[in-house]
Amino acid sequence: MGNDVEIGRVTADQFADFRRVFNQTFGFSASEEELARIRPWTEVERAVVARAGDQIVGTSGAYSFDLALPWADPVGCAGITVVSVRTDHRRRGVLTRMMRQLFEDAYERGEPYAALWASEAPIYGRFGFGPAAPTIELEVPRSHGRLRRPVAVDEVRLVDRAAADAAIPALYEAFRRQRHGMLGLPAAWWERILGDESSDRDGASEKFYALIPDRGFAIYRLKSDWSSGHPAGTVQLQELIGLDPEATAMLWQFLLDIDLSGRVRAHRRPVDDPLPLLLADEGRADVKTGWPLQVCLLDLPVALAARGYGVDDTITLRVHDAFQPHNDGTWRLAVSDGKAVCEPAGTDAADVEFDAEVLAALVLGGHRASRYAAAGRLQAHTPGAVARTDRLFATDVAPWHGVMF
Q: Residue 352 pairs with which residues in a beta bridge?
């Protein structure tokens, strides 16, 4: 199976062919202009491809991010991306072989974590990815956008691209120190976030940048709609970050008051976003489950020891990881003064037992062990072990990352 396919690399002059194969697989545009635009933030040296003869039949790659962790400094994280397998080469082990190479590359780089956005999440659980940072989608009608405690928005400024370039990356990085789960973005990535190509608008306006100096920002578009005979446009929120509660409230109020709009719609917001509670009638916020950021532990003991913990305990974990045998086994996680040591536990009996994808879902505090136990996906072998695992991995805020890659 798949013996006619070779896993290899691409050179810089093969970038266009590599990207066209990915785009064509998913029906995206692959114009020369589009390829030139995305080239600056593509790490061609981290691309992994599958070839059948002289044709590329599978694509994958990685970005060099770092991951903000609870009560600890960020650590390296491979941002897995542009994963595709041509239809006529699926179910032949091509994806598995590309993922193995990507993992080996990241492991050699000293990146204990990997992350990705999965349009079909079940595909990636077998590689050890779990939904570590859940998100929600929010929609609020303007007619019910009054806040319980109205705030003035006179500090909010609409700024041009140059001012956005000067202020927003630093605000993002400052917020990342408050919110684990967020990925550090290389400098080239800010063109992707702040750039405004007309081909990306889909009938909406240019991007607007709302800024509260030193305190927060929002990036959005307005898509007009007069089909009902009165203005009912949609404010399409791309990013909103406030460094303090008042700044966050001001930015939401600003968006909810935009003329010619009928609603504000936001994707990939943190599950503890305060917007519903800010509203005078919180039931008017339509909240739906969004895509989670999927995370995988590439080096289990290093990944668990890298984060901080809110309680001290010692617990023994039996982790099943068929894809990464070096992670498969029984591990003793000992936490003292919030810092952890994770070592092989040999033949010691485990307190809890689960698959690697469950550990990945727990590692940032985005899910509770008790919920996985209730679903039969986590087994407790000692009394109170589930509650102890809950307390050990819990965090004071929900993990979040909203930038697609």
A: 317, 380
Alpha carbon of residue 32 to chain centroid: 28
- Strand positions, DSSP E, 171-250: 183-184, 208-212, 216-223, 233-242
The beta-strand segments (E) located in 213-301 are 216-223, 233-242, 261-270, 286-289, 293-297
- Spans of the chain, pLDDT less than 50: 1-2
pLDDT of residue 27: 86
Tens-place pLDDT, residues 195-241: 998 888 999 999 999 999 999 999 999 999 998 888 999 999 999 99
**Together in a domain, 283 and 324:** no
Euclidean distance between the first and the last CA atom of the chain, given in angstroms as a whole number: 31
Select which of 18, 103, 124, 323 is catalytic: 124
Q: Exactly one of 129, 209, 393, 405 is catalytic; which is it?
A: 405
pLDDT in tens, 130-152: 999 999 999 999 999 999 999 99
Total tally of structural domains belonging to the chain: 3
Determine contact, residues 141/255, Cβ cutoff 8 Å. Answer: no
Q: What is the CATH number of the domain that holds 183?
A: 3.40.630.30
405 flagged as catalytic: yes
Domain boundaries, position 304 = 299-393
Active site residue 309: no
Q: Looking at the structure, tell me whether residues 208 and 101 fall in a common domain.
A: no
